[in-house]
Structure formats: structure tokens, C-alpha cells
């Protein structure tokens, strides 16, 4: 087995994870609807030898668009554009299993995988957003368990479609006129509780076989979905203990399902970097100054599913606040725990989260950040990180120019891409289709 | 009103419209799954000042993939790639209203429209293909009328979503921290027979306002859909009389619905060009020699929905063959009529269709082809053409280098792009959202 290696994704959250990033001096407020912004960041990340670009998604007009940008553009279109402007970096896009058909998702990601020469990953989400549900004929969010049952079957169907072509089924022999060997392209004839799909897919496999399956979401159902399908996981871990426990739990669930392949655990990591500690703190205060406090209250209230009127900036969270039992967001529990553990007021909590996503936030110098990443990597709390710089592209540029060289010097991060596909970057094998033996038997 | 001008789209049908195009000496059999093939053709067409690239689509493994390529890659991913490699040419992609959700289609095409700076069109189809239906939980094709009712409502919803943002709703004022003026972004609250969609869309309008609506399909229901929504129509016309009558009929239907804007009629046109007539004929015979006859029988039988065993190469079509009443293909009737009118055997019919799509085929020199195009344009039988060269890219290159200059010399085709958007190319106005007056009233 080859040496373990750190993995880094850049999560291009519009102008940056900090809610006021769009107001920073160098930011373009329209960046969130400009594909060139995504291309620019992807190219910087590729210069830094990152594994992949990561794009989140919710098919809805954002919660509080008065105050800040959000994921507006459809991710696969952005990634196709990024693919055209890059050569190596992986391309991971989110698509919801609640508001799509498996045939369309399988085909679109397979097309993108061919277009990028095997650099694609699909981040599977179920979308716990009732406003999004109302864009798709529903009155609200479907129950958590049912969403995840649908997601598991959805992913099963997508994988079966991706594997419906054997390698070599595309013959294209001009001399004989034989184009496709249809004996090596297999209908899937799937019939389940949620989907009935005949197949086969209409595109052949890519250089990496099929897109990498990525999962985000840490509930019990989410962990089961990850255990069943995920090859990389965008997780939440605020302490090394949390990271270690989460990975152990998902790995145990995967083993119990008979899965043996590798899984990369990539917790979210927000960064705010300065040349000195003082510099970093000053940068943080500048962004905090630009942060609209009304947005902060609304965001915390939305996360916890309570009335914003129940929150006050200079008081702690109300005692009776608890993570919503069903349909809750991945970050609800972690946010409450952080507030309680460190006895934070709402204002301190917002400041501590960097107004951000609920992922861990590191404020510091390139050295402290590289040391922290190394410690997490060596302890097994993370195989790498889904990186969310404060402001884009500048926060990413600083990371690439000043943190990446330190990680390379520590010998834990690549100095050159050694493969072409996302599977190559992540150290994942090219999967078999499951049809190989059948055809060999027929041919024998 | 400005002078009427010819419009040309390049319909990139994998290796070319001729069924054996992939076997031609210069062809790459894998071109149909290679985005670079699409990019290459788009760039040639852009050099020729074409209005747009056009991509057909059916979400299914093709009818006879043993013999020939088909539309495999998902069109919007191809078009995003093409957008990244071109500056002016329009990008028209087909997506089915039977196997998608309006919110997803509205958002994906709006994203592509932003990514390409306003060069996108959506070709609305209902997909009369029972194998495709079986990839989406159905047992077969839904009845013609119902498909078109769904399509009309689907397009209504998509347009409402595209128009849910007023121009100027994206404020992005760093000084005040005001990001989106949500008073100028409107939920659509659509509730109809097929869809319930709250909206608004989550992306602002593009430079051209919204994507151009394109329609293909000539049945009565198809004409009604075109009359209601289409700004450009990919039609079938084998004679000028047919073209003139079709345009008059659709324009009359549009007027009766109160529509006043322009509609561009662009019949399909297959071309097979030689330096001399003899050259063109030789080229035709070479492609015919490479054509697998089994495929031809199967294709005609499929089109007419009859048992292939009922067809014989050297006999005419059976007397009792008639266009299928429901769920039939646009070309069924035209194909039967051609065979009867010219008393063709099945072999002659295939040869005459150039083994192709059922659209009109011109075999000749650049001069005869340019003269033909001019005659159709001047008589009003066509506002332009959806061009399908025999072999790609060579058939397109010959057209661009030898036919386009003749059309320019005749003064009917542009020598430079004069605008940036697809609407500019097609002479279509940038549409209003319908919200303008409301906001002005509120502001007054």
C-alpha cells in the first residue's frame, strides 16, 4: 500500500465562507453568478495541486438574499466550464436525490466525467429545505428517513446505470461497420420502492470508470448512506476526537455492509489567514465589522428552527433549544454544543463561527494552520479537508502560496499530480462494472 | 424595421447526418462521446458566422447502436463546454418536458445563459419514445395530447421562473450591505394541472433577458405549442410550398393567441457538397456503400411503427402503411408521402433520404446549394436552416468555406456578428419580465 497522503478540496462558496466576504475591498458582488469567478478559483487551486473543486447546492432562492450571496448557478454547468479551463483538478458537484430523476443525474454526471477525462464526483444530498421542496410540487420537506431511503435507492440506480456499459462495449470498427457491441451493454431493469428504470445508460464509462460518490451529512441515516456508497465524505468535525469517532463509526457501518474499499474523510475547514496572528485577527475584525447582524440572528434561528425573536445578541441560546428531531440540518447539534460548551452569547457564537457555515474555523498564520492540518491528518481525525477560505479568491491564494508549501515540506501533500483522474488523486481504484465475469464466461 | 437576414444553425448530429458518416476516412468513431468534437464544429460554425449550435436529444440508449452513433452526451454539458471555447455563436439545447422538472430546466438553462453571456436557447420537446419513458418509471409513451398539455404548462412555468427577477434586483451595494432587493424578485406561485411551483428562480436574468424558446415537431399539438411559445422553429419542409404553408399556419395560430413577436422558421436541411455535381454524387455513393442496409430497414420500420419483415428493399412501401395516429414521429407522414409521390422502392427511399433524418437533402455544388437557400429564403419558405452536413466536421467546413461566402455575396447573410446574444443574432427583442410596471408604480 502506498503512503497515505493528504487531500484538499476547495469549496467555492460564492465570495467566500464569511457572510460579508462580498463586501471585502477586492470582492466583486456579482461573483456568485459569474462562472469566471469559479474558473479563477479552480485554477488557483489547481496551481496548489488540490484534489478537487467542491460545489454545494440547494435548488432554491436563498434564505436571506438581502444580505449575502448563495449558491445560485447550477453546479454541473459551472463544473463543465471549469473542466474546459483546467487539466487535473477534480470536479465535485452536489445534486439532490429528492428533486431529480436518477437517469438524468447518472447521464449528466457521466457526460461531465467524459468531458473532463474522468475528474468528476457527485455529492449526494437529500435537501432538508422546505422552500426548495415547494419548487418541486411538494408542500414541505419529506420525513428524514424517507428522504434517505429514496437517496439510497437513487444512488443504487445511478451506480447501476454508470456500470451498465462494459469497458470495450464501444467498438467503432470502421472496417466491419460494427459500432457498439450491444451484448456488452446491459439494461438494469431496476424496480424498487421509489424508482423503476430500465436502462442501460446511453454513455460509455469514462477513464476513471465512473464518477466518485461523495456524501455530506452526519445523521444516523446520513452515515448509513455514506457507509453504503460514499468514497469521500464532506463531514463536520470541530475536534479531533469528533473526527476520529465519526470516521470509526462510518468505517464500522461500511464493514458491516461488506464494503472494503477506501473512504476519504474530509471535514469542512474554514480559514482566515494572516502573515502574523495579529494580522489574522485584524482581518477577522474587518470582516466582522461588515457583517449584517440581522442576518446573523436570522441564520442562527433558521438553523435551530426557532423564532428569531427568541434570540438576543448578548444572551446565550435559550435553555430549551434542542436539535430538531426530524428534517434538521447537520449543523444544528454541533452549533448548540459549541455554544453550550464555551458558554457563548449569540454574538460570540456568530463571531466564533466566523458568521459562517458551522464548520471549524482556523484563524492564524500559515504556520499554525499547516501545523493544525498536519496534526489532524496524523491523528486520523481527517484524511484531508474541504477548505472554505474567508474571502475568494484571495483567501485561497494565500493558502496555496503560503500553506501548501509548508504541507509539502512536511511530506504530507503532493508536489505534482501523479495521475489524471479524481480517483487517481484520491487514491481510489477504478471500479469494476460487475459484468466482467459474465462476458468472459460467454467468450470462453 | 431592419432588413430581413438569413439564419443558420449547425445541428451537430454526432459524426454527421449520414448514417455511415462515422465510417468515413477522416471520421473518429468516438466523436459522439468527445466534447472536443462538438467544440471543433462549433468553432468552425462560428468562423462561418452561424447563429447557433443546435443539439437534439433523447434520454435513451439509441434504437440501433450496433450500427451508428447517436446523441449520447447530455446537451447542456456539451454547450457549457462549447460556451467556454467560443464567443459569439448561440447555443441551443434540447430537453424533454416529459422527463424533467421545470425548476431544474429553468435554472440549468438560465445558468448556461449567464455562463455564455446570453447565447442560449432551449429546444422544447415532448419525447415520443417509449424506451426513453421506461428510463423514467413509465411503461410507455404518454398520449400525444397529454404530452403536449404538459409541455405547454412546463414552458409557461419555465418562462415565469426566468422572468421572476426584475432587471436591477441584484443590487450588490458594498457600502450599504444591501445585496438583493427581494421586493423585485417575485415568487411565481404556479399551480396547474401538472405542476405546482412556488419560485422565484434563484438566478438573475442574463444579458438577453432569458433563453430563446425553440420548438421542433409539426403535429397540430406541436404547432399550437410553437404558436404559444416558440421564437424559432426547427421545422420539416421538403418543398417551398410546404415551408410557406407551415409558416403561415403557425403565424396564424400565434396571432390568434395574441402573440405579435417574430418567429424564425428554420427547416432542417441536410447537405452533401462536392466541387462539381459529379464530385457530390461520387461522395454520396461512397457514403451509401458504407451504409449498413439492415439498419436502414430497421429505421424505416421504426419510423412507420411496422414490423421490419413487412419491408423489402426492392419493393415500394406496403399499400396499407399510414402515419401512426398517436405518438407518431414528425417524419412518418413526410416519409410516406415522399415514397408515394416519387414511387420509390425502400432502397431508393433510403438512398433518397441519404439514410438520414427525413429532412430535405441537397446534393450539389456550393453554387447550387447557395442558390437553393436563397430561393427558399426569398420566397418566405424559410427564414434560415438547421443545417445537417453529411460528415462532420468536413461537410461543415466545406459549407463555411464555400457556401457562406456565396450567401454573403448575395447580401442575405451577415459577414460579421453585429450583436453578442442569440436574440441579437435572431433579431429577437430582449423580452420584458412583466413586472416592470408594477415596480414603477410602487416606486412612483
Automatic annotation (TrEMBL), chains A, B:
Family matches, as CDD domains: Nitrilotriacetate_monoxgenase
Signal peptide positions on this chain: none
Domain of life: Bacteria
GO MF annotations, alphabetized: monooxygenase activity
Domain Luciferase-like: 33-381
Pfam name, any one: Bac_luciferase
Coiled-coil portions: none
Keyword check for Cell membrane: no
Keyword tags: Flavoprotein, FMN, Monooxygenase, Oxidoreductase
Protein family: Belongs to the NtaA/SnaA/DszA monooxygenase family.
Matching NCBIfam families: FMN_nitrolo
Designated name of the protein: FMN-dependent oxidoreductase (Nitrilotriacetate monooxygenase family)
Biological source species: Pseudochelatococcus lubricantis
Amino acid at each position: 500500500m502506498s503512503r497515505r497522503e493528504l487531500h484538499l478540496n476547495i469549496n467555492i462558496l460564492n465570495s467566500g465562507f464569511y457572510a460579508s466576504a462580498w463586501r471585502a475591498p477586492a470582492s466583486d458582488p456579482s461573483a456568485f453568478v459569474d462562472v469566471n469567478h469559479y474558473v479563477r478559483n479552480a485554477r488557483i487551486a489547481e496551481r496548489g495541486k488540490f484534489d478537487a473543486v467542491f460545489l454545494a447546492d440547494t435548488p432554491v432562492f436563498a434564505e436571506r438574499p438581502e444580505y449575502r450571496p448563495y449558491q445560485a448557478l447550477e453546479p454541473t454547468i459551472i463544473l463543465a466550464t471549469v473542466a474546459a479551463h483546467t487539466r487535473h483538478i477534480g470536479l465535485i458537484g452536489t445534486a439532490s436525490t429528492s428533486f431529480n430523476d436518477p437517469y438524468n443525474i447518472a447521464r449528466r454526471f457521466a457526460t461531465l466525467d467524459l468531458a473532463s477525462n474522468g475528474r468528476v464526483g457527485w455529492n449526494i444530498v437529500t435537501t432538508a429545505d422546505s422552500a426548495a421542496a415547494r419548487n418541486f410540487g411538494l408542500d414541505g420537506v419529506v420525513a428524514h428517513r424517507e428522504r434517505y431511503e429514496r437517496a439510497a435507492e437513487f444512488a443504487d440506480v445511478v451506480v447501476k446505470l454508470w456500470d451498465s456499459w462494459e469497458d470495450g462495449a464501444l467498438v467503432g470498427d470502421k472496417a466491419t461497420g460494427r459500432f457498439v457491441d450491444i451484448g456488452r451493454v446491459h439494461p438494469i431493469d431496476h424496480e424498487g420502492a421509489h424508482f423503476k428504470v430500465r436502462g442501460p445508460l446511453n454513455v460509455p464509462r469514462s477513464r476513471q470508470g465512473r464518477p466518485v460518490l461523495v456524501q455530506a451529512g452526519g445523521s444516523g441515516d446520513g452515515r448509513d448512506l455514506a457507509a453504503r456508497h460514499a468514497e469521500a465524505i464532506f463531514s463536520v468535525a470541530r475536534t479531533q476526537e469528533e473526527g476520529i469517532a465519526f470516521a470509526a463509526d462510518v468505517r464500522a457501518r461500511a464493514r458491516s455492509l461488506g464494503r472494503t474499499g477506501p473512504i476519504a474523510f474530509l471535514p469542512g475547514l474554514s480559514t482566515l489567514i494572516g502573515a502574523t496572528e495579529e494580522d489574522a485577527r485584524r482581518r477577522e475584525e474587518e470582516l466582522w465589522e461588515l457583517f449584517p447582524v440581522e442576518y446573523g440572528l436570522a441564520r442562527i434561528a433558521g438553523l435551530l428552527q426557532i423564532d428569531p425573536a427568541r434570540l438576543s445578541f448578548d444572551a446565550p441560546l435559550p435553555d430549551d433549544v434542542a436539535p430538531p428531531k426530524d428534517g434538521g440540518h447537520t449543523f444544528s447539534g454541533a452549533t448548540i454544543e459549541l455554544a453550550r460548551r464555551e458558554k457563548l452569547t449569540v454574538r460570540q457564537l456568530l463571531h466564533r463561527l466566523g458568521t459562517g457555515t458551522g464548520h471549524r474555523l482556523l484563524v492564524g498564520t500559515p504556520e499554525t494552520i499547516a501545523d493544525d492540518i498536519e496534526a489532524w491528518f496524523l491523528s486520523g481525525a481527517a484524511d484531508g479537508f474541504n477548505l472554505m477560505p474567508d474571502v475568494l479568491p484571495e483567501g485561497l491564494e494565500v493558502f496555496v502560496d503560503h500553506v501548501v508549501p509548508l504541507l509539502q515540506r512536511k511530506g504530507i501533500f503532493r508536489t505534482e499530480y501523479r495521475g489524471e483522474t479524481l480517483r487517481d488523486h484520491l487514491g481510489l481504484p477504478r471500479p469494476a462494472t460487475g459484468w466482467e465475469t459474465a462476458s468472459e464466461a460467454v467468450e470462453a
